[in-house]
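Q: Sequence in, structure out?
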Amino acid sequence: MSPMPSFLDPQWLISAFGLVGILLIVFAESGLLIGFFLPGDSLLFTTGLLVVDGIYLHQPLWLMCLLVSIAAVLGDQFGYAFGRRFGPALFRRPDSRLFKQGNLTRAQRFFERYGARSIVLARFVPIVRTFTPVVAGASRMRYRQFLIYNVLGGALWACGVTTLGYFLGRVTFVRSNIELILIGIVVVSVIPVAVELLRARRRSRGAAADVR
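A: Exactly. Output:
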């Protein structure tokens, strides 16, 4: 039995919703603020793995990579447009069950630190991946520049993780321990977020000490 709740279990999601579900989840996690909790990395890895056996998914790898890349790029495009239109108001919005100012602030710091490169780098950092295009839009990043980095980052992430799952899916050990592998992917994915949280806590403690 999978230790993940069914709505976050990649294999259950794929078996229940198929290709359409994959594309919708990738789009939502890439550009909708409420999609930050969705299993992007593990979902793509599992997609590649299931393509090997043709279970639930019957598309060739190249087509799967192309479609997922398009969904990822369109998701970020939506996030950018949303941030450009509503960005300033978002930074004044109070916390709610599905929206935390902390997530937006972390993405803003990430964007300020890496500039245009953050559009590519954020693809490989959960949560930050969802909020960075919104911050880019709110910061009035040039659209042409955003589009170039968006296409590059979306293709690298979608094709890279899906292809990794496809080839590792041929390894007996991986197939025999898929649940542990998926948990490992989730853990590795959240390490950058955890490191940033620790840094932010240290900075706040340092600022408090300076005030004293």
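The chain has one domain: 6-202.
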